[in-house]
Amino acid sequence: MYEKLTNLIGEGDYREALYELQDEYLHIDEKNNIDAAKLCVLEASIWEALGDDTAEFDALARGIAYDGSNYELFYMLGLYYKDINVNKAYLCMERALFYCDNTEDRRVIEDSFDEIINSPGFRVRNTSIMILSYNDLELLKKCIESIEKYVPKSSCEIVVVDNASTEEGVVEYLRDKKDNSDFDIKVIACDENLGFPKGCNLGTKYCNKENDIFYLNNDACLTRNALFFLRMGLYDNRDVGAVGPLSNSASLQELPPSEFYKYAGKEVKDMWHRELGFEKSYEIFKAYAHDHSYPMRNAYIKRFRLTGFALLVSCQAINEVAKDLKVFDEVFSPGYFEDDDLGIRLARAGFAQLVCKNAFVYHNGGSGFEGQEDALERGREKFKEKWGFDIWGYSLPWFEVADEVIAMVKEKKGSLRVVDFTCGFGSTASYIKSSCPETFIAGVCRNSFEAGISKRLADDVAWGDTNAMKLPWSDRSFDVVIAPKGEVSMGQVMRYLKPDGVWLGAGDDSQSEGERDIINVNASGFDSELRETDEVVKNLLNSSSDEQNESGET
Predict the structure, then answer these.
(1) Which of 107-121, 216-230, 522-536 has the lowest mean pLDDT?
(2) 346 closest CA partner among 242, 491, 467
(3) CATH class assigned to 396-551
(4) Among residues 74, 240, 265, 322, which is most buried (max CB within 10 A)?
(5) What is the CATH architecture of 3-117?
(6) How much is the pLDDT for 370?
(7) For the structural domain made of 127-394, what CATH number should be given?
(8) Which residues lie across from 214 on neighbouring strands?
(9) pLDDT digits over 84-97, tens only?
């Protein structure tokens, strides 16, 4: 297959090779995934020879989307990253070796490791997969089977803490696995149920101290290349301390049910996996993952916390925030909000946290905290007591205005400058930048605590009295100002909004005539530095203030 194209590439006749490639692509939908991926290998070879790294990356990504087990694609991706990110290069070569069944090609891949490992900046560590087990034997089996199927045994160890399971056969299965699996498995059987934080901390102590740790629920199952893409995220840059996947069921990392319509063959609703059962749901989820697990230019969503059901934390981050190896604060036992707490600690220590948009882990939902129906609310109260605020007040973006910004970017087909007076911990900034990464977002926070966390999500931040402070950005320099009417003064908004800019949160339907006049004057281009001496503007501001007083607004 593709003999003519292969010969043209071998002869260095890339112009004719491109013509032949174009002819082959006309029929790519008629090919199976494996053959389509092979065509992408040849395409990437052409672009590499012609020095077009953008087209080369796109070809490799497209090929992996077709066939995520093609070792040639991962090998070429490793070569692509060799001078860009040596750690990602290593992970790609490791993946290529995992899939390669050709003796000669394996030797070529193995020979590439020495140069990479000895390169300055190399720091990849193996992974300890730490599973907290409690009952749900069949789900536990599927969890471990997914690791054995999708993860190279040379790159990891499995540490399982059984939290005093009451279901018959759980501990026996784990001990049998320990004795008979090709993987390095450690089993710690507890005499009592320690809960989630204490159980995970116990497992942490048994993990190799040099490894990164992947905390994985026993009711969670990997898909192909899930851990690979998580590790690619963890080693994207030195600031990254933790990464998490997308899932069918995970707080703030959950794919909407509409994403699975194509794969389920019908419309599904929230918690659809519970209705369809594990076997069918996992197959649907794997089919979705097959089509979406590939290298991406904008692969990461910055967050200030990640959900603990499948959480990969770097060895460096653990050493920084948990020198006693108590990664999860045990005050949150039996569970809930210990992952939110860890997120705050990681953020305050300067670590970035990423959701990897090309990593997918199925989450079924298991036995949970039996007899602890109030655990969620108690965990929330514990978090408030520890930190002095309710994390739920910071977790969600302002969807309405964020969607408007995204629509504006797509309509203008260009980047915007946005200042967000409701920045908080950066949830709205994260949401916008996950779709529009080139958009510049400045965040205004109420205090330095918020700013210290949101600076990882927004491009720049300032903090203080939102109405009184002079912001560190040029006047009239923002295309969009996000500011709730009544909380941020119109004068402050107009100072930083471009003449043709948009104020989101102003509530157009309720604007007074005076407020509309101010916005119109702004659009006509008055100088914000002189606004206090501009009689027209002063009168309009006074008029607007009087109207607010009469209506009882502040």
Answers:
(1) 522-536
(2) 242
(3) alpha beta
(4) 74
(5) Alpha Horseshoe (1.25)
(6) 62
(7) 3.90.550.10
(8) 129, 312
(9) 999 999 999 999 99
